[in-house]
Batch of 2 targets.
Target 1
Amino acid sequence: MIVNKLIKHFENLKNSAMSSARMSETASAARRAAAEGIVMLENKNNTLPLKRNARISVFGRCQIDYNIGGTGSGGMVNTPYTVNILDGLREKEFEVNENLANTYQDWIKNNPVEIDKNVWASQPHCRAELEVTPDVAKSAAEFSDTAIIVIGRTAGEEQDNSDKEGSYRLNNEEHKMLENIRREFKRVIVLLNTSNIIDMSWVSKYGIDAVLYIWQGGQEGGRAAADVLSGDVCPSGRLTDTIAADYTDYPTSKNFGGIHRNYYAEDIYVGYRYFETFAADKVLYPFGYGLSYTDFELKISNTNINQNNIEFDVLVKNVGKASGTEVVQIYLIPPEDGIDKPTVKLIDFAKSWLLHSGETEVLHFSVPLSQLAVFDEDKAAWITERGRYRITASKNVRDLSECFVYNCEKTKVIKQCKHNLMPHLPFKRICRKNGQQAYDDALLKTYNIEDRIAGSLPASMNITGDKGYKFSDVCRGNVSVREFVAQLSVDDLTALIHGEGMNSQKVRAGTGAAFGGMTEGLKKYGIPIAAATDGPSGLRLDNGDKATAIPIGTALASTWNKQLVEDLYTCVGGEMLPANIDLLLGPGLNIHRDPLCGRNFEYYSEDPLISGVMAAAAINGLQRAGVDGTLKHFAVNNQEENRKRVASIVSERAMREIYLKGLEYALEMSDVHALMTSYNPLNGHWCASNYELIHEVIREEFGFRGMIMTDWWADMDGESDSAPSKTNKAGMIRAGGDIYMVVRDIESIEGENNIKQALDNNALTLGELQEAAINIIELLIRLRKK
Ligand code: BGC
């Protein structure tokens, strides 16, 4: 007895030692990623890096109240510790103005941020600041001539930003702080500890010397910021979104935030695709922009075009004094005639090694010719048009001079599709006519989905009842998944297509969902139970268990370093294994359609390529650790206001070129096994039950064979426009979805689903239900086999 207890005790010790070693590995990877994701937008007169022993006065409460991540499910990580900016700076060889630091510490103690933990997502976007009066600024300036100001913002699930002071814009207190500090200090550095880009008009107004988006860098964010300020890390982050002069310059600003419906009138002209084509003068900082402590020269050589790819080398040379890394961005400048299209498109990118002064590296690129393609809405086909294409090696979307030309001789259809996801309501959308911005009518739906469904129902298998085949027999390859699933009764199948959560007792405490063999009926076949939890910024464990908070998605994408992101997620996976979590509910790769979306922090970019590449890197990293991830949320979950109900009306072309393109890239670059649909209706149907989205495009066209889950407590409808409900599981299955997330108790789902009625009324076939079960079992096999 005592011996057993001792053994258990030592096992626990070993596990906790193992997991704290794992956590510190994740923390180092997170620090590196947070530092590489920092984007330096200004650095006048080489204000940075700070010299050793520099004297600095640090302002702004977020130097201490550092925002590690955004709010809601994608940010709820219980960290073992957080290193804030003040402490990060103190760890370097700087002389910090400790009087000022103490003033802040005391003030924060007396002015805490009241957050009602019982109210979901109640964190304020912006927190009250200590008043930096002219006297406060003056007395601090007696200590140092360099000031660092930290400005913080947060946003998140169900909390969009607004184009108001204290959210997208600075508020009065912050303006006063900048004004008074600017007056007294020789050098002013501003750090933006924000979840997304904000209005930047104050930079020129106050003549700020250095400005850096340090984003929300996870628990090591303060150290990462200090790494860059001190020059230990040379900044190499680049913007993944365009920063415009004013919010109203964004083409989405007029049709974002509607409570009931949003028309995607900007169409394919999202982010830089819009600005570079129609409104270059409205841009403050272009897509891909970011400064370094050194300088690089890029030279293209060895160009070669074969049947499938455009091959070339880019020689990167560090021509500055400091050591650093460069992001090489490859843009396509297509011919102007033919189908209207943006003037420029990102088609590839890579990051160099750390290059010392004078060193060079040759990066090889092999860009598929399919990157030239545009979606021809009349033909429902991807085509490459004849004409003269320029391909560049650039430092940002404006730097297009280093390039070569590819002449495409003939217009070619490279992929014939079926029309899908066409809008059901008319609207005008932006297009380009004679080089100018114009509007045309979006093409409307021309086909009948019910006919398509009827024509592609899978065959049903006769229910064989228990033939003695166990889950382990399928894993060993002794029985096929189909034979195994054929044993399951309708009750078993119905239970299998439900996940249980949050905090199901059937898996480790504090997770988002349990799914798999949760009922007695399913257990007898030996079907295991899997655990899934949020999310993209580290493990969310609602029982209070600790995990490492990594930088937000936007920060990770700003590194433009897919290997680093992959390695970081391998570390996250390393934390999932001992915590008995099989599936991460992330990464998220919705497009940054508008800078006010509250969940932009979880996502990567306004550009689908960088979104897809980063999502694939996260999945590859998790799988390397022996666990898996879930790409979410499909599709067009671009607004948090009324997110469960607000309808998106989008053209087929924008769906394919922008909103589903990131997913298409991610599926090409990684072996994805799980996806999550979104809450909102899209072109007339709720995404969780949208046949065109799930069955037609994701499964048939993209060839996705994994498991598709709903978002938590999603609504679903049917093809004949039935009202949305949480019980219409038949609508989800018919659309090609597999599992409903989540019910509170798997044993009492009788009144929570319509499977039996739908089978009786021929609104669902047994074959469709069995297909969903097959997808779930196949995912469980993968999760167990690792
Ligand atoms: C979010 C998902 C999340 C799920 C589980 C939902 O509210 O939209 O992203 O994975 O909750 O926490």
Target 2
Amino acid sequence: MDFQKQGLKEAIEIAKNLVIFTGSGVSAESGIPTFRGNEGYWAQFSPQQLASEDGYLDHPDIVWKWYLERRQKALETRPNPAHSSFADMQDFFEKVVIATQNIDKLHQRAGSLDVLELHGSLFRSKCRNCENVWDDENTKFTDDFHICPSCSSPRSVRPDVVWFGEPLPYNILQRAIKEAEDADIFIVAGTSAVVYPAAQLPYIAKQHMAFLIEINTEPTPITSIADLTLRGKAGEILPKLVDVIRNIRR
Ligand code: OAD
């Protein structure tokens, strides 16, 4: 593993702001499938059917069952060493921000305090009519399931996630962009980095002179601009990176 790579030690020595951009590969070792792998979500299902407004309007029950299964699965899994390592990094830098495309809440459960959920959360619902948003871990699939608890509108409750064709939550994206601009070190982990606008974040960080580290089992479009590529499983590499940081910053 190339922890001797030129520039890494200096970057760790002087960094104040660490920004971490994650995708589903970071949760793979917790047992949650990625999206585009051979056995990923999009190999089994059509994204347009399950993760779009039109799909929801055509088959709300199918869409809800899919999200409730994913919510249940996320509750049954545990953060893995990749998530814990990111939480550990909070001990060494003034500011650590995670911008995640994941909706499984595993970063928060591992102890990361500043998590920007770019694609929403499996654990919130929202009303399409009155736009009320609420924490939702326990909803059961019943006849009155789709009635908004706030405005009582029927067939209006949906998961608070970003679907195909929808914009990202404005304030969260703007803050992620600002944090990417201010990053001294920017880590990209477990994402194919092909879904925009989230995937612009590493480029923004690089343009603003961040030291860019990529952690992935496979090459991605980010590999060619990364200052350091660590090839392998996030849950195996990240604890080693924390050791390197601890040795330099203690
Ligand atoms: P992808 O399935 O596109 O990419 C997962 C990435 O993780 C790939 O580059 C894998 O090589 C890598 N990977 C797999 N296992 C890994 C491991 N153990 N350690 C390190 N890397 C590993 O998933 P995302 O990039 O998260 O959006 O996908 C981005 C967005 O596309 C998702 O948020 C979702 C999807 O459409 C929405 O639903 C809006």
